[in-house]
């Protein structure tokens, strides 16, 4: 048995032993971070409703020693937004990533989503993605989480020695409910219908929670479940790649810069999300608490990605039809079917996927409090599984290719005009002619941990307590893609057309941009195509890619908390040692690489009372974020004839950040604040994918090697402004503004803004509530931001984006509510441009508005 196998078995045995003990003793979960917060003297907030939720969140911010923002659900089922990520966008310094309408990632203070970290009750949560074309990174997918079971969240913006490392943006701690905190016999249930106006479809959702505890309040049980079905309906106009210089010839042999591929896409997804929680809590006396918590999150999102696709090179450009802009890029031209039989310039590309994802977390904690010391023990495990089957096909008229000619116009949002308008009128015109794939993508993430924390109360000087702890964590990420060919020649011989899988016609697409003709209406396939693919897949499997990343992490910390007349805070040091083992394949031969790095992460947080209601804050600390799994995989592709190699390796250092905060917070009422915070992040060892000439075995002494490297530095400076006020007459307002100046110096010495970072963003919401109603309207805005598009190497820029959400709740009876909520009321679209080519529109994504009508009851 290897040393690593022995360590893994040892940790699993320890965890299973602890969890077995916990189940016999009937114990429940409580994170150490929550226990430490409970010791602090904070005000008790009794106000209910929207004002109560904002007051609780403000209370947590005010009495925190660190730079922190909080969100609170003032009652069961009353989280302030439909999605955890939607709620986070209303925190200063946070902007969100919307890939499929719902928030699936957050950008905190100028850092990418994978550079922030999500904890559940203070502990790491395993996570996997599903999209095969997306990078495999450490970002947590917020689409996995239903809001009903989350009682609140804290976003740590400054470093603290006792908080898990791994984030240079922010650390999000999601908190679930505990039975001993609720009244005995608490029961909550809700039902809801969701309407997506683009899909014109209603979908159901329901949730329930029950909590019970003994009369002496020493033992409690909580069980909760929620299930939500929803439609995700994304309409996209997209041009692919970048217009290269002279990348396509016309019918006279002259070359031009043009987009070579473009499409109108309908992403039609049936999503089902469910969450399960079981919590046991046992306090046999005032000194001891034992707890066990289990959470299960499941997400299935079967979808049909139907695209009317045009590839200019499948035909020939008519030289007389060309219009160019001042960058000498074609903005309008006609391509005919002269490319020859077997190629249809305008065709249907159908991609069917059945992603299934599951994340669970089992957590045991034991807390003992003596007169002047406390000790806590945590053991837990979190696993995530992602299984995505995919089939892709191309359909078009390959016999009379002139039918598949078209005119394209990219002077605004993409427009495609078929040469033969009748081409779109029948499924029979679309015959299968290329690509019939059947792929199964498998991703697994496992995390096991043991943690012990100790706190001792001091009786002299300004230092009140000293905390220390140690944590052992093992985590593994595995990914592979299994490919089975479906014989496209047999399908062609069978004479398959879209008529064999008639899914009707899509129409009325892209209403926000007003596109017409083929882009808004074209024939599509139904999901019966799956049956043919599964029945005709090859018997042999080819593994497209396979790798695993194993990380053994040992962390220890010491932190001193201090308090004096008008000030408080903490100073600490966290030590982290990381061992990495990466396994993969080099030139078809199994291979592995190792990496070890150690980090010392100091931190200090100070909160000083300038007056009774005015607080000055200062924080400084060092943090790290580990490289993405994509960058660390052992992989190699060599082309001797071209003298190139693409290489992956675990030999990367983590991102490192030294960060500083200075802020003022004026709490002029129980539910009111005016605050300003300046933040600075100096990031080193920034990871970039670069190409450089170097000697490389199996290639040459002057091989052009593409790999991820620690080459860059980045600087982020910004200011957050926050205002919140309750007028004490039912009305209230909440708003924030963030300015972020970000830049990264890449390997070429060029300074550019960081990806996904807007310079200006703000949120504004207003509410009203009384005994019968509560209502809220919220506006969210961010200005343009840069991102790399599909690894093209050219910077693309998203236009500014704004969104309006609203909700109203009618308190029908003391325990019965009826609610109506709306998300993206104005159906805003995401628009991506190429600034290097006269701001040509690269893509337009339209998600539609969503409405929710629900009822809930609580006893």
Features:
859 residues, mainly beta, Maltoporin, Chain A, 29-stranded mixed beta sheet, disordered N terminus
Please tell me about this protein's structure:
The structure is a single chain. The chain is mainly β. The protein has one domain: Beta Barrel (Maltoporin, Chain A), CATH 2.40.170.20. It is built from seven helices and 45 strands. The strands form six sheets. The chain has a 29-stranded mixed β-sheet that branches. The protein has a five-stranded mixed β-sheet with strand order 1-6-7-4-5. Strands 15, 16, 17, 20 and 21 form a five-stranded antiparallel β-sheet that branches. Strand 9 and strand 10 (219-240) form a beta hairpin. The radius of gyration is 28 Å and the shape is globular.
CATH superfamily: TonB-dependent receptor, beta-barrel domain
Topology-level CATH name: Maltoporin, Chain A
Main sheet makeup:
29 strands, mixed
* β-strand amount: over 45%
Overall pLDDT metric: 86
Number of β-strand runs: 45
Count of alpha/pi helices: 7
What is the share of helical residues? under 10%
Principal-axis shape equals globular
Measured distance between first and last alpha carbons: 56 Å
Spans of at least 5 consecutive residues whose pLDDT stays below 50 are 1-10, 12-47, 789-793
Structural class: mainly beta
CATH C-level name = Mainly Beta
CATH architecture: Beta Barrel
Rg calculated over all Cα atoms: 28 Å
Q: Domain count, please report it.
A: 1
């Amino acid at each position: 048995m290897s040393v690593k196998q022995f360590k893994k078995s040892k940790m699993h045995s320890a965890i299973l032993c602890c969890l077995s003990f916990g189940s016999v003793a009937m114990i429940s979960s409580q994170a150490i971070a929550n226990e430490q917060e409970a010791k602090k003297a904070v005000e008790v907030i009794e106000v209910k409703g929207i004002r109560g939720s904002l007051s609780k969140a403000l209370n947590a911010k005010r009495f925190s020693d660190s730079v922190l923002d909080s969100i609170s659900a003032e009652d069961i089922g009353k989280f302030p937004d439909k999605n955890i990520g939607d709620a986070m966008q209303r925190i200063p310094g946070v902007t969100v990533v919307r890939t499929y309408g719902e928030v699936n990632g957050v950008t905190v203070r100028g850092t990418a989503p994978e550079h922030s970290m999500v904890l559940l009750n203070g502990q790491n949560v395993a996570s996997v993605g599903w999209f095969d074309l997306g990078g495999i990174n450490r970002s947590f997918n917020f689409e996995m989480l239903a809001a009903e079971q989350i009682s609140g969240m804290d976003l740590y913006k400054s470093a603290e020695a006792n908080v898990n490392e791994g984030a240079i943006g922010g650390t999000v701690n999601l908190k679930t409910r505990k039975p001993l905190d609720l009244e005995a016999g608490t029961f909550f249930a809700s039902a809801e219908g969701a309407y997506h106006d683009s899909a014109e479809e209603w979908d159901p959702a329901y949730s329930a929670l029950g909590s019970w505890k003994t009369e002496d309040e020493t033992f409690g049980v909580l069980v909760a479940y929620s299930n939500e079905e929803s439609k995700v309906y994304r309409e996209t106009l997209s041009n692919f790649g970048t217009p290269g210089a002279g990348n396509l010839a016309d019918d006279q042999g002259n070359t031009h810069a043009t987009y070579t591929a473009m499409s109108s896409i309908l992403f039609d997804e049936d999503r089902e999300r469910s969450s399960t929680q079981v919590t046991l809590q046992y306090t046999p006396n005032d000194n001891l608490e034992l707890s066990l918590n289990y959470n299960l999150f499941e997400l299935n999102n079967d979808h049909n990605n139907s695209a009317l696709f045009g590839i200019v090179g499948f035909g020939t450009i008519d030289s007389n039809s060309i219009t160019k802009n001042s960058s000498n890029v074609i903005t309008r031209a006609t391509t005919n079917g002269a490319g020859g039989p077997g190629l249809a310039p305008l065709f249907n590309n159908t991609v069917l996927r059945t992603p299934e994802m599951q994340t669970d977390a089992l957590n045991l904690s034991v807390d003992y409090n003596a007169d002047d010391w406390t000790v806590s023990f945590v053991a837990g495990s979190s696993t995530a599984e992602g299984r995505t089957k995919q089939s892709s096909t191309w359909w078009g008229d390959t016999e009379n290719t002139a039918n598949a000619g078209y005119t394209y116009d990219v002077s605004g949002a993409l427009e495609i005009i078929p040469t033969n308008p009748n081409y779109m009128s029948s499924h029979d015109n679309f015959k299968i002619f290329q690509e019939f794939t059947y792929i199964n993508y498998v991703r697994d993430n496992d995390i096991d941990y043991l943690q012990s924390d100790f706190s001792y109360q001091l009786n002299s000087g300004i230092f009140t307590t000293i905390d220390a702890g140690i944590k052992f964590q093992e985590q593994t990420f595995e990914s592979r893609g299994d490919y089975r060919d479906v014989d496209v020649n047999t399908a062609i011989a069978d004479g398959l057309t879209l008529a064999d899988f008639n899914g009707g016609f899509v129409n009325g697409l892209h209403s926000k941009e007003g596109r017409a003709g083929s882009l808004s209406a074209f024939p599509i396939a139904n999901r019966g195509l799956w049956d043919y693919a599964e029945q005709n897949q090859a018997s042999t499997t080819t593994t497209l890619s396979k790798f695993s990343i194993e990380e053994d992490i040992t962390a220890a910390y010491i932190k001193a908390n201090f308090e004096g007349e008008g000030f408080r805070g903490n100073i600490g040091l966290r030590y982290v040692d990381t061992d990495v083992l990466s396994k993969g394949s080099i030139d078809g031969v199994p291979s592995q690489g190792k990496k070890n790095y150690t980090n010392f992460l100091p931190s200090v947080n100070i909160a000083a009372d300038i007056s009774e209601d005015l607080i000055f804050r200062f924080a400084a600390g060092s943090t790290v974020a580990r490289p993405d799994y994509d960058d660390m995989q052992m992989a190699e592709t060599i082309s001797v004839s071209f003298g190139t190699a693409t290489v992956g390796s675990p030999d990367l250092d983590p991102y490192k950040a030294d960060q500083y905060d200075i802020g003022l917070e004026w709490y002029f009422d129980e539910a009111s604040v005016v605050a300003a915070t300046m933040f600075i992040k100096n990031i080193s060892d920034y990871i970039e994918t670069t190409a450089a000439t170097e000697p490389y075995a199996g290639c040459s002494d002057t091989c052009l090697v593409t790999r991820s490297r620690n080459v860059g530095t980045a600087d982020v400076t910004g200011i957050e402004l926050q205002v919140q006020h309750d007028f004490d007459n039912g009305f209230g307002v909440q708003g924030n503004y963030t300015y972020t100046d970000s830049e990264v110096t890449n390997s070429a010495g060029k300074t550019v803004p960081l990806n996904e970072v807007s310079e200006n963003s703000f949120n504004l919401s207003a509410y009203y509530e009384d005994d019968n109603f509560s209502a809220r309207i919220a506006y969210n805005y961010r200005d343009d931001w840069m991102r790399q598009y599909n690894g093209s190497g050219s910077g693309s820029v998203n236009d500014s984006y704004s969104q309006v959400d609203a909700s109203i709740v009618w308190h029908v009876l003391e325990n019965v509510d009826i609610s109506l909520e709306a998300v993206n009321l104005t159906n805003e679209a995401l628009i991506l441009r190429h600034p290097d080519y006269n701001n040509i529109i690269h893509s337009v994504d339209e998600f539609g508005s969503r409405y929710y009508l629900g009822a809930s009851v609580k006893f």
